[in-house]
Design goal:
111 residues; mainly alpha; Eukaryotic RPB6 RNA polymerase subunit; 2 domains; 5 helices
Length: 111
């Protein structure tokens, strides 16, 4: 990957604001001395984006479930657009939708 773009990252994170939060959290971890998950010599902020684009970093919880404040309205306009277009399933109304994402095969840091 010669360049990392926001579009590359948005393939793995459905919401722009969630992407900013995830990248900022990962940047802070890298700045404090966390091990890099991708081999590069870029600055920490670019490394964080490369890790997100490469699916090495993800949230602990499902972003769609967390962004839903009440049963009828989604907080994020971008997420609402994705739900309307059919790209992303609408979060379920039950409490089980807010459970954490668990992928035992992936040793990624969870933010």
């Amino acid at each position: 990957m010669a360049r990392v773009t926001v579009e590359d990252c948005l393939e793995n994170v459905t919401d722009q604001f969630a992407l900013v939060h995830l990248a900022a959290q990962r940047y802070r971890q890298l700045h404090r001395g966390a091990n890099r998950l991708v081999d590069n010599r870029n600055k920490n902020v670019v490394c964080a984006l490369r890790e997100i684009a490469g699916r090495h970093v993800r949230f602990r919880e499902d972003v769609a479930a967390v962004l839903r404040t009440d049963k009828s309205k989604l907080v994020s306009q971008r997420l609402q657009q994705l739900v309307d277009s059919g790209s992303v399933e609408a979060p379920a109304d039950d409490a089980s939708s807010a459970s954490s994402v668990d992928d035992a095969n992936t040793p990624t840091p969870l933010i």
